[in-house]
Specification:
Strands 3-2-1-4-5-6-11 form a seven-stranded parallel sheet, sandwiched between helices. Strands 7-10 form a two-stranded parallel ribbon. It has a two-stranded parallel ribbon with strand order 8-13. Strand 1, helix 2 (21-32) and strand 2 (36-41) form a beta-alpha-beta unit. By secondary structure, the chain is of the alpha/beta class. The chain folds into two domains: 2-310, Rossmann fold (3-Layer(aba) Sandwich), CATH 3.40.50.720; 325-436, no CATH class. The protein is built from 17 helices and 13 strands.
């Protein structure tokens, strides 16, 4: 251990995707082992929130498509660890650029400078894979091999960590469903890997204590997905489900199609078709090469969970993540319907203002303007990059309505239908949604 720390103390390591689920854990592990780590991040703000004082290099893989684009980023670097990746194409994601083109350019640039590369790939990343996620990952792996750089390709199974994202987040969301346990592909074989074991493998590679090559990082024995979900539910402290419902393939396909559609609006749902295809195919690798190279067996799922602490915030996050689509849908519908009712009932709404002494022109203009504002807020919350800020805008507009109505038409507070009273729970829901929609 001391020898490895001394060796790593002389290593300058650049971690790509450093504030992601895997990247953040890898970055902290390398630093804890003594390496001098720099984080390559797309968002400096997100990097600061997740990584604190770790030095950052701000950049975007989608713009690093030629070897020369990497020149300034690689100054003084001894090893690059690529933890970056995207599940599916979307407004902020380009699989071809991020998984293949940028990584091929990185490989050429590293080869020129004799910089080693540790590539976090995926089990199932093959040229003839069913998904563009796996195919582009395989193409990136192949490009790195062709570049001739010192190379380690690590292919983790389903990664289980203290935090959650992607498949782990989906497991926890499903485990949070009360009474009933829905599950698609319950018999699909899955091999997991603990985040601690994954980080240890990266540290060994960076320290060159692991022979160069490709390694599947998985526990010894596959388990059906239903067992993995049951273990997750047990770890989270949720009571056993009274009924397990196997979701039919047709329903799964419809859900994935909806999730893909929302992906075009920037929502990165773990239910998108690429994730579902991967899960349908199973997550199964060969643990033997890594065991032979290191003499170590990776922890099984029960052992992984035994080493993690599940606290109240994990259960709360799982439950709120499960509810978040409903919350966003309700808020969108509330504001859309509110605006449309204002447009449809324009004469009646304007009459309230004229009765209070407004001119007809001012009353009509006000109703039209604020009805269109309502419609805009109902639509805008569906665009993921704006969603959190839209929640605050909804609160601001609701407060304007309450104050303006209290001075202009105070009698609305006593209206039997409670039009002003109803604004209060809607405003509260926007305030609840705001932290849920904060970016990672």
């Amino acid at each position: 251990m001391i020898g490895r720390q001394l060796q790593l103390a002389h290593k300058n390591v650049l971690v790509l995707g450093a504030y992601g689920f895997i990247g953040a854990a890898v970055t902290r592990s390398l630093r804890a082992e003594g390496a001098r780590v720099s984080a390559f991040v797309r968002s400096g703000k997100a990097g600061m929130q997740v990584l604190g004082d770790i030095p950052q290099i701000q950049g975007d893989l989608r713009t690093c498509l030629q070897p020369e684009d990497w020149g300034s980023h690689l100054q003084g670097i001894d090893c690059v660890v690529n933890c970056a990746g995207a599940l599916q194409d979307g407004p902020a994601d380009d699989l071809e650029a991020v998984h293949r083109v940028a990584i091929a350019a990185l490989g050429q640039a590293c080869a020129e400078k004799d910089i080693a590369v540790v590539q976090i790939s995926a089990i199932g990343a093959e040229p003839d894979a069913d998904t563009d996620f796996m195919r582009t990952k395989a193409e990136g792996d192949a490009a790195l091999r062709a570049s001739g750089v010192p190379l380690w390709i690590l292919k983790p199974g389903l990664v289980i960590g203290q935090s959650d994202y992607g498949g782990t987040a989906l497991l926890r969301m499903l485990a949070a469903v009360p009474l009933v346990q829905p599950i698609a592909y319950p018999e699909t074989p899955v091999q997991c890997v603990g985040m601690q074991d994954l980080c240890r493998a990266v540290v060994l590679a960076v320290a060159q204590d692991l022979p160069q090559g490709a390694y599947d990082l998985v526990e010894d024995t596959p388990a059906p997905l239903s067992h993995v979900l049951a273990e997750t539910r047990k770890w989270m402290g949720f009571p056993d489900a009274r009924v397990t419902v196997a979701v039919p393939g047709v329903v799964t396909g419809l859900i994935s199609a909806c999730a893909d559609g929302l992906g075009h609006l920037g929502w990165r749902s773990p239910l998108r078709s690429n994730a579902m295809k991967v899960m349908a195919d199973g997550v199964v690798g060969d643990p033997e090469p890594y065991r032979v190279a290191t003499g170590q067996t990776l922890a099984g799922l029960p052992e992984v969970y035994a080493g993690l602490t599940c606290s109240r915030e994990h259960r709360l996050t799982a439950r709120m993540s499960l509810l978040m689509p409903v919350v966003v849908a309700v808020l969108s519908l509330f504001w859309l319907v509110s605006g449309l009712i204002g447009l449809i009932s324009l004469p009646r709404a304007a009459a309230l203002l004229t009765d209070a002494g407004w001119s007809m022109a001012m009353a009509v203009a006000s109703v039209l303007f604020w009805s269109l504002v309502d419609v805009a807020l109902g639509l805008a919350i569906l665009w993921r990059p704006w969603a959190a800020r839209v929640c605050l805008a909804q609160v601001a507009v609701a407060l304007i309505y309450l104050l303006a109505a209290s001075f202009t038409v105070p009698g609305l507070w006593l209206d039997p239908l409670g039009p002003l009273i109803k604004i209060l729970p809607a405003t509260t829901l926007s305030l609840i949604a705001w932290p849920l929609l904060q970016s990672r």
